[in-house]
Amino acid sequence: MQQKLDYFRPALTVGAIAGVLSGLPILSAGNCLCCLWIVGGAIIAVRLLAAQAPGPLASSDGAVVGALTGIAAAVADALISIPLRSFNMDLARRILDKAVEMGGELPAGLDEVFNAGAGALSPGWFLLSLFISAAVFALAGALGGVIGVSLAARKPVPPAAPQPPAVPPPTTPPGPTDAA
Amino acid sequence: MTVPPDPGAVRRIWLLAACGAAIWLAGVFLAPLLAGRGAGGAARLVYAVYAPVCHQIPARSFRLLGQPLAVCGRCLGIYAGFAAGLILYALARGFRRPPVLPPARLFLLLTLPLAVDGLGGLLRLWRSPIGLRFATGFAWGGLLPWYALAGLADLVRARRERAAARTLEKPGPKK
Fold it and tell me: Nearest Cα to A117, choosing from A76, A82, A77?
């Protein structure tokens, strides 16, 4: 019977760490590089899963544990972002102001976003952003999980050295039988 | 237990992935279109969808109607590369054979330019032009459909195997 893998433990452990990294100011910039924390977290979650698996993992195992890691990261990111919201908004505004100074220009309506962000976070907006993050992070995590499976692919075990042939049991030469 | 391969599954998964990629890519261009035509509220929502995965710094983004796209040049490269990779997959591998994972060496090879470019920018060693960011993202994104299709196809296979096992476990009708 096939042993059932525990997807949740590695996904929750690594997802929580990836979510915290995604929510912290400055460090969250890692996600701007191909969802680094989420994809990297999913790869690590697959490594943890592979450590407890009796055999090689399938791509689907990687996809499932990666997607769960992404969802866990989205929840942790949302939770850690609540107290850091005003700080993050201020930081983002300063970065964009710097970009404007360097010759860029803000997208239309972004100023209103910052002004709205300075106030309290509405539950509706919080749930919407959590839902969007969870969907996007789950997809990125699933991809990272499959990548993790390909990176962690175990090389096939070489066949054991050929055993010397077993000593055949002594055979008695056919002789006359009683029936004859 | 193993079930016979479903030749139509890979085609259906590919179509699903292609539709998803097209919608996601269209959204990138929709945001500046809306912003340029004065629909600020709708544009804000579309920009917000892409905010968790991109810094959206206007100076690092291509523009449409004078407005920055919803993602930076590198992210656009990844999504465009994904779409191109899907087309390449259909042409190169087809749908009859089950998807296979690319070798790890190829993944590392295509990740290297993107990682070096990204890290150099992060450490302020250099400022790459948007075109180079797009190109490194495109190369990396082009490999991703192989992973996405392999993962989804294996999920479908595992689900069919479980369903087949459940059918076998069910007791037959009593006579």
Answer: A82
